[in-house]
Amino acid sequence: MLKIEEYDKTADLVTVDNTPDLFHDVLKRNPKSMERFHVRNSIGDDFDLVYYDNNDDLEPLDSYPRYQKPPFMARYDIYDEKDTKTLWLGFFDGVKNMVFEELNEYTVVLTKLVLSVSEIEVYCTDPRIYWFVSENAKLHVLKKLPDDLDKDTLLYIQKELASGIEDGRFRTLSGTYAFHNVFVLQWILAGRDLSHFRFITVEIDEWAGIGAILSYCERYKIGFGRFGLKFVHKGNDHIGKFEADELMKFFELDLRDDEANDDNTLIVPSFMALSKTKFLKGIPHSVDESILTGSFKAQMDEYYDAVFGSEKVLGVMIRGTDYVTSGMTGDRVMASPQQMAPLIREWFDEYGFDKIFLATEDEDALEYMRAEFGHRVVALSQERLKLSDLRQNEILSDYEKEHSDGMYEEKLEDTTINYFYALYILAKCDSFICSGRCNGSDIVLSFNNERFSHYYKFAVGLTSAH
């Protein structure tokens, strides 16, 4: 991002003119972080532009999972605000007013954009906006930002970092995130012509479980379909933890196309940067029973009926070892079984459940729940690990591969069935309690389609529960 700062008379810097292409002219010089440029301004005071690397305008790096490596945000050295066919203008849906606290490259570009393509009213306190934007009836420069605007239709761009991700609304966020939400496809295109591409692919990490695969692949299909691009899976014979051919036995996944090749397929440079957008996160849970093959669904229904019949069941999901060792933060911090037990006990007594169906990969959690609730706990038979089994900072999927005695490949089918059985059975339960937000719980809620009598998600990493 280029920030507008006071002219430094003591510095001997490259000087450019304030033209409509000012920001692009400076970016073409491949600036380094904190590099300054003088700007000769014919309609006001001269000023400096200072380049800040977008990766520095983020949450503290220690807030990211340990297995994620920077950079976590696109630089945007190349973009075209006039090419509206490659901008995601859906970001502004429902917005009636936009407010920004700081005048910089991104707030200038976004202001010009919304004034030209929408009826959004823009408010700021910096009259220097007129150095870059012509006077407009929808542009309001005030001494004080208004505090009476409808919050539900307001896009508020803060000077300080606010990702907008945690509340899921993306309505209060920093200029870097606001710009990224609109220009996300141009980041992926990197100056190339959209018409040259028919397909798009996102690398699916090798530790991705079935919840992440189903949740995100459906979102990719919907999101990129807005631009006429078909999502495909490219690469080796695995999708996340699983063999691609095995997944196709259980799920209706249209992830391959014989016509996709290196020339007509876009590659998303970073899932982490993509995940910071309403373009992706704003797509609701979109997986339903149509994604299951008929035989697989019938098999799981038969299993549920045989185990529970007409009993009233409370579904409980407790994520443990893999989330701890991966260093998850924020709303991905999971509640412990000790924290969950009082609510489980309260619901069990108040609502008259017959059984608890427990889904967990954590042996410690299973042992605790059996000690607390005894024979009422039912759980699928599967391999589980204790946190003490794992070395410091080790990812669970890596542990499985290293300690499977050569059986990892052969057990993939059983792993797929067991884990998804758990999600599907949870979705069929009368009520549901989960230890926090994860892709698995998203899948459960999507399959249940709001049929739970009672639902509670712990939010230990946030200031309040949901």
Percent strand equals: 15-25%
Q: What's the total helix number?
A: 14
In spatial order, strands of the major sheet run 7-6-5-8-9
Rg of Cα set: 25 Å
Report the principal-axis shape: elongated
Unreliable sequence segments = 392-415, 462-466
Which percent range fits the helix content?
A: 25-40%
The largest β sheet comes out as: 5 strands, parallel
Q: Kindly, what is the distance between the CA atoms of the first and last residues, rounded to a whole number of angstroms?
A: 35 Å
Instruction: Name the average pLDDT.
Output: 86
Total strands: the figure is 19
- Which class of secondary structure composition applies to the elements? alpha/beta
Keywords, please?
466 residues, alpha/beta, 5-stranded parallel beta sheet, 15% strand, elongated, disordered C terminus
